[in-house]
Amino acid sequence: xxxxxxxxxxxxxxxxxxxxxxxxxxxxxxxxxxxxxxxxxxxxxxxxxxxxxxxxxxxxxxxxxxxxxxxxxxxxxxxxxxxxxxxxxxxxxxxxxxxxxxxxxxxxxxxxxxxxxxxxxxxxxxxxxxx
Length: 131
Hints:
Blueprint (H helix, E strand, L loop, with lengths): L19 E3 L2 E5 L3 E3 L4 E7 L4 E10 L6 E8 L2 E9 L3 H4 L3 E5 L4 E8 L6 E12 L1
Antiparallel strand pairs: 1-2, 2-10, 3-10, 4-9, 5-8, 5-10, 6-7, 6-9
């Protein structure tokens, strides 16, 4: 089987909520999003007919002691949920291994559960696509 050529469509054009597939790899990177005490989408996409084996990571881009809740849902069902304190952002950045089934609507949200101040957080999914 010939290796698939990756062209200019593989250029990173900036963070977004959607999933980008390059050959048999994929990523979704929200970038830095201001989050207050309202659940806010960081990622939102639907997969194709393949499944994805990868990881989900939450990111914290601000200094502070606020606690952030990150949720990951598949077709409206909660599959991963955790909180971390902004002052210990290394814990929040730990990757969680995930398997995303085919034709799955994936939504990641973040919420500041401490107060209404807005700080910047984000989410990243990276993985390999399998047929």
